[in-house]
Amino acid sequence: MKISNSFVIIILSILSFSCGSNQDKRKKYFSIKTEDNKTKFMLGETIKANIINAQNIKIDSVTFLLDNKKVASKKDFSYEEKIDDEKLGNHILTAQVFYDGNIDTITKKIAFLNNISPKLYSYKIIAEYPHDKEAFTQGLEFFGDTLYESTGKKGMSSLRKLDYKTGKILVKKDIAKEYFAEGITIMNDKIFQLTWTSKEGFIYDLNTLEKTGSFAYSQSKEGWGLCNNGNQIYKSDGTEKIWILDPNTLAEKDYIEVTTNKGVKSRFNELEWVDGKIYANTWQKDGIAIINPNSGALEAVINLSGLRKKVTQHEKLDVLNGIAYNANTKRLFVTGKNWDKLFEIEVIKKP
Fold first, then answer.
1. Residue-range domains of the chain with CATH
2. pTM of this prediction?
3. Residue 331 confidence (pLDDT)
């Protein structure tokens, strides 16, 4: 017996629609409800969640997972836990509902926030040094008393070795015109440099500035800033994430998410490691965020407003971007995109 192709297609469509309809109906059976419908929880608070069973279906059990990690398996279909040492930032609370031989998986987006508001610091200018106003600064870092800089824009990107006191460019390596260079960091006698949207970074010999290799971004889509603590590398990508990179493979193996007591923050650009903290420029902001590298808590902000007015005003002048810490002098240096000055500053911590 011959069956027309049209008939087969119709039957398959009906079956597909039927299955899809059943799945859609099952999705409406259950949902996760948190106490007071909260989606943001501060450290020290307790999450209280339960399953809403709209159809009064007999449930056998429920397993709760936080970011795919099992946190509870209960018969009373509820979950309660105090937030003490969980990673701050965005999370997914998942419930696997077992009933009548079926398993339904439902999710709810939640966020864990810091329970302390960021401190506000000011600054004092210690010294001013000349800086190339044609440099679209994307990365800045000291090695000893020598300053290294990465500049951006396609066709203008470069890696530079500088005498910071005179502003003299000692060595300059131009980057291929198809790349928009971003942040840098120095570790194990190597310079690591990001590109913005090419999903590729470069590795250079510290002494010669000769390119020795490259690496691909394994998870993030963009490269913004880099810093390191001597053991691992931290990378920002413009989102709320700061990635933790394996120093050998440069693979993005983990991340933190930057949070305050109000919410999850993003757009962190140039990074610097300073006395156990991550200092970060926030794009389009006249300040530096001080971030706990373990939890992601934004602990303080250095207000650098007014600094941009102290450089020559011209049509190419752009935002604050560039943080370098001189471990020998314990001083912080900052500049911006197309700024003609590099500032040595002292951070004033208010009680």
1. 30-113 (2.60.40.10), 119-348 (2.130.10.10)
2. 0.90
3. 95
